[in-house]
Specification:
The chain is α/β, with parallel strands linked by helices. It is built from 18 helices and nine strands. It is about 45% helix and about 10% strand. Strand 2, helix 12 and strand 3 form a beta-alpha-beta unit. The N and C termini lie far apart (about 100 Å).
Length: about 500
């Protein structure tokens, strides 16, 4: 069976429906259908395993009872059932998380879900296509990975939805280097479709799980929060297929919508690619210290991560170049980061890693809470031989990171085995402080080159404009203070001459 062709067939059917407009709605429609089918497959397994099994949602709404029969209800009767029974019942389901956790997961998943399709006959055709994949069979369960990857590729092209996609090579490399372990609380505060969490789960399972009890313990240590409905629904589905029976710890919420001081600093591992280039809604900045307030999403998430990490907790974060060279509040946040954490490694990625969604250059920051930074190692990741840029048809591959993995060393001995080479160099915290925490440090082993890349030119222009703005503000402050001082002196003299 070609999963790609199944997904393409489903999308072709949806294009005929007057109610579905664009890739994002097609993906949203497919996501809740896929969720219910995967959920029911997991329910069938639990029925066999558990003696005291009780269905977490009313029986009529399980996939097997309304969708699994290809000759079942269709047309207006199907639309009537979905719009007036299925959705209202699941959205209003009474399912306290402590008494019916799997029911709670369903209710949360459907909180903002929507049936876009208006043609019940076409909807039946879509359902029948999904029925070609049987997730109760272990031989076919792995096919979800192919479906999921196909959905992610489509997400890349679905406008703003692409922000939830992190290339699998980057995800795997980060998790490989952070090395999450059994018993550690693992979190992605901006989890998107769950790529980092799924990769972390698989890493722990492959390297540290040796029994059924270990597997149950692992399920309890995965935490994620996603603000938007579509990626949240995909993330929950992804977690279920990876073996998490009750992914109630994947919350549909805005992580930043809570005072920073109210968080516990108990997270052992954070792996994340927070949204960057955007701004948060009004009022969110009030949850942060007055001198560190900003509406830029990436800056707020970096503060949050520093706060919630436990002592000796480890983090790896994808951040744009703007965070490295930015001034003002960004400088204060970077100062905080280097004082509270050991920012030991920055991997500088080349252009195109996130193509076609964005051409912005990005960096991978690795740090550990509890000890201030003494030295920062930089590693400039090169293109592989014969490659001048990444693209949708030529994405980055995990194997390209082997040089970094071989070079990495061990944090326990302060990375004593690391050596400088044509791609790697070390910068002391004193030099970073002298640069006013500007971390946009070029590779000293490479001569000055003139770039004609439009993204790099725009980034350079942005840096120049920021410097000009900062100088202008400093000048205003100096002149303003001088004028205020002169006015005060004049007022004092006037008072002395007219007692």
């Amino acid at each position: 069976m070609s999963i790609s062709s199944v997904i393409k067939s489903i999308q072709d059917i949806m294009r005929k429906d007057a109610g579905v407009d664009g890739d994002a709605q097609r993906l949203g429609q497919l996501s809740w259908l896929l969720f219910l089918k995967v959920f029911d497959a997991q329910e069938e397994a639990l029925e066999v395993e558990l003696d005291d099994y009780m269905a977490p949602i009313p029986e009529p709404y399980l996939w097997r009872n309304w969708a699994a029969d290809n000759d079942g209800i269709t047309g207006d009767a199907l639309l009537e059932f979905i719009n007036n029974e299925l959705f209202p019942e699941l959205k209003e389901l009474y399912a306290p998380v402590d008494r019916n956790p799997r029911g709670y997961v369903v209710k949360e998943a459907f909180s903002d879900a929507y049936n876009y399709m208006k043609n019940g006959t076409l909807l039946r055709q879509v359902i029948n296509k999904l029925n070609e994949v049987d997730f109760t069979k272990s031989s076919e369960r792995h096919l979800f990975g192919d479906i999921y990857e196909q959905i992610l590729r489509d997400l890349q092209s679905a406008g703003n939805a692409g922000e939830f996609y992190t290339p699998r090579a980057v995800t795997r490399f980060i998790v490989n280097r952070i090395d999450p372990r059994l018993g550690e609380k693992i979190m992605d505060p901006a989890c998107g479709t769950g790529g980092f969490l799924a990769c972390a789960f698989d890493h722990v399972k492959a390297n540290y799980v040796g029994s059924a009890d270990d597997h149950q313990r692992l399920q309890q240590q995965i935490f994620g929060v996603e603000k938007k409905q579509l990626p949240h629904l995909l993330c929950v589905t992804n977690m279920m297929l990876h073996g998490i029976e009750v992914p109630s710890q994947i919350r549909h919420d805005n992580t930043l919508n809570k005072p920073l001081s109210s968080w516990d600093n108990d997270v052992d591992v954070i792996v994340t690619n927070p949204p960057f280039g955007g701004t948060e809604e009004d009022g969110i900045e009030a949850n942060f210290p007055a001198d560190l307030r900003t509406r830029e999403t990436a800056d707020l998430f970096l503060q949050l991560i520093i706060e919630i990490l436990a002592d000796k907790g480890r983090a790896a974060v994808v951040l744009p170049d703007g965070t490295l060279f930015g001034e003002g509040v960004k400088t204060k946040i970077k100062k905080l980061l280097t004082e509270e954490c050991n920012l030991h490694t920055i991997v500088r990625l080349p252009n195109g890693v996130f193509n076609p969604y964005t051409g912005i250059k990005t960096n991978l920051l690795f740090f550990t809470k509890g000890k201030p930074t003494q030295d920062i190692w930089f590693y400039e990741h090169p293109y592989p031989a014969g490659v001048k840029n990444y693209s949708k048809t030529r994405p980055m591959k995990f194997e390209e990171f082997q040089a970094e993995i071989d070079w990495w060393g061990n944090e326990q001995d302060d990375f004593a085995a690391r050596v400088e080479n044509e791609h790697a160099w070390k910068v002391s915290i004193d030099e970073v402080m002298a640069r006013n925490f500007n971390l946009d440090i070029k590779n000293p082993h490479v001569g000055e080159t003139i770039s004609h890349d439009p993204d790099e030119l725009l980034a350079a222009y942005a840096r120049q404009q920021q410097s000009i703005r900062d100088l202008r503000n400093q000048l205003k402050n100096v002149l303003g203070n001088a004028l205020l001082s002169e006015a005060a002196q004049l007022e004092e003299r006037a008072e002395e001459s007219h007692p």
